[in-house]
Amino acid sequence: MSARAGIVVTGTEVLGAQIADRNGPWLSERLRELGVDLEAIVVVGDRPTDIEAALRWLAAEGVDLTITTGGLGPTADDLTVEVVARAQGRPLRLDEPLRRRIARAVEDAVRRWPRLDRDALEQGTRKQATVPKGATILEPVGTAPGLVVPPADGVRGPTVLVLPGPPRELQPMWAAALATDALRWAVRERTTYRQEILRLYGIPESEIAETLRLAERAGVELAELEVTTCMRSAELEIVTRFEPAAGPVYEALASFVRERHGGVLYSDDGSTVDEQVARLLTRRPARTVATAESCTGGLLAARLTELPGASAYVRGAIVAYANEAKTTLAGVEPELLARHGAVSVEVARALADGAIERLDADLGIGVTGVAGPGGGSDEKPVGLVWISVTGRDGAGRIDRSVRLPGARADVRERATTVALHMLRRMLLGPGDDDEA
Amino acid sequence: MSARAGIVVTGTEVLGAQIADRNGPWLSERLRELGVDLEAIVVVGDRPTDIEAALRWLAAEGVDLTITTGGLGPTADDLTVEVVARAQGRPLRLDEPLRRRIARAVEDAVRRWPRLDRDALEQGTRKQATVPKGATILEPVGTAPGLVVPPADGVRGPTVLVLPGPPRELQPMWAAALATDALRWAVRERTTYRQEILRLYGIPESEIAETLRLAERAGVELAELEVTTCMRSAELEIVTRFEPAAGPVYEALASFVRERHGGVLYSDDGSTVDEQVARLLTRRPARTVATAESCTGGLLAARLTELPGASAYVRGAIVAYANEAKTTLAGVEPELLARHGAVSVEVARALADGAIERLDADLGIGVTGVAGPGGGSDEKPVGLVWISVTGRDGAGRIDRSVRLPGARADVRERATTVALHMLRRMLLGPGDDDEA
Q1: Which helix (H) or strand (E) holds A323?
Q2: What residue numbers bound the domain in which B251 lies?
Q3: Which residue on chain A is closest to B322 by alpha carbon?
Q4: pTM score, whole prediction
Q5: How does pLDDT run across A207-253, given as a tens digit for each residue?
Q6: Which of A318, A367, A416 to mutate against chain B (most B CBs within 10 Å)?
Q7: Which of B267, B293, B310 is the last residue of a domain?
Q8: A218 CB near a chain B CB, below 8 Å?
Q9: Residues A36-55 pLDDT 10s
Q10: Which of these, B53, B37, B42, lies nearest to B10 by C-alpha position?
């Protein structure tokens, strides 16, 4: 029996999709690390009745901890603290030392704008320093304090952890919350789970369903594991969560998957293809990479440079959107373009060669395709992408055409993922199993 | 009194943050367009009891429509349809014509994998063709049908719209759902709201709070409007929703904002800065653009090529991550790099000039900065980015350095946004108001 939690994300701008919620997923990962089961994430607007309804529902579901995010600002429409105080049966009071600390933080924050309304600022500070009696205060990172609010004597329900909305305030405050007795007491029943991820590339989800059935028939006790499969683009993740005692069962499952899908299993240690490519490029002999992209418009370069330290192995990129740019910047012969068209294996190869030559890289990646919505033809439909990964001085070449589904953004993103897997394959060399 | 809706996003991989939910926000926007109030988005895992609890809660809250996403796959752990059928009091039955249609779609989808287990496929097809009696079937886009499931006679509660999880299946199916009598009946009480968005660049949120107070004092009846403000990167959105009769009140608010913040108000027609830049580049005389990027690593080029039709105005980009690439590809003089360092106004300008020259563009954008986490110094800290937007043959130049907060990904993304605003400013020319 493990501790259970729910999350209430508040904010009309989140519910209305003007802003994406980053806190729910982030807290979900932290709860998993902590060994607390997450039941549900509820997104509601700023209306007190809606926040209250969400709190009541989670309490009725019997969670041990409810975490709220947002609604802690200085303005009158931010009402999370008031609603939580009522739900927990605790009166509000002004905390004078807290008020002074917030006032100092506000002074710092508004120094850039000297003409702000002082009355409004002071009113806001008092509001943010008004907290439920008996709550544990988490020091503000911005100007809003967080709170750990246990139910008052005689009130049944979960402890409520109140956190601010901006991720850069919420995230440091999580660590502070974990250090409080009040929070530790709320989640005292937690179980330490292990979580392992297997990542496969290029097989359909139904194959994994079948593999799980066969594993069970072969005696792997899947009931001991919580297995989730998840497909994104052409990558399939098998996420398994289990109590430490079930370790051998997981190992048996992992071996079974390895045996059946060895060729397409590319990660069993949690690493992403991005991290693997970075690792392979920096291991000795270190190699550098450059791209020459058409339809992906720089997305592949952006993704290769996403990880810190990318400057050690990314030389740069040429985004050759116009045909002239393919010629002048990447050195693609005009005859090649005229004869085969921009979307062709010949041009993908020439782009890769050009990236190597112009950027002095060990490996070049050429990408050319039809991202859509326009520009497709019967012969070269929207979604057709040619990719070439090429080594310097003829040190290997992998070419591939794919027909990618989805809208413009999907085609661009998927092409980027395919290219990264091809680069990984090239870096591993011919000694390894071939992918399907 | 308007129709009200709730959304239940199902999926252990969404709840566990392995995959980001795109459907909740997308459906939120569609409901708003439709004039239906969204009460809450609930994210739960794949457990039937959790899905059921979420459905029951929304029913108890009195919504008219509940939309579920996900859990429609061919495997036995996808149980949304079963749970919804039970909640709505409708028995399940195999729909034979639907089964045949799904079987054909499955044949198409698996043609690439000839060795798949036939039994597993047929079992999956039968499962996906088993639907609640009396439900309206929405034709599969992938292999999963959607459903509109009204409550059976004698059952109280909302109509449930069942949609698949993959966005590229869900989105086209939404249009099909809207065309059904069953869905139209469920949301018959909708109110047509108007929504308008004002977008400002480069002022703090507290200033807008103050502006709203002043507007109210000046007689603008804000109680007639639902105003939400939302900050992301340096862009601030004021989203106002109102019944058509309150149109004049909104116009009064918009005028008030325009008067106080004319210099930083960049959009009052819903357009994003990306769309404005695209529009400005294609209006006569049409102009082309190219970028030479260091720390943004291709993100700016990727963003400029995001919109369909970008090939008309984007020539391409140079991602000059290595200093040598800055010289060989973008023509930045080595002395310049040695004298001023890579992160300097001089190099930003030289990159912009290089982009124009090498890619034969009318406008060049140079970006160079310290994205972090390493590479910062006292003089040039992490987050410092120099950007130059330059016109061909000396036709104007805007340079700017910014000190951007946040982690590596934030710095890269914010720098991209700043560059787009500078490009917009350049395209508007000196005739317009200057930004703060």
Answers
A1: helix A323-328
A2: 194-267
A3: A315
A4: 0.84
A5: 888 899 999 999 999 999 989 888 877 899 999 999 999 999 999 99
A6: A318
A7: B267
A8: no
A9: 999 999 999 999 999 999 99
A10: B42
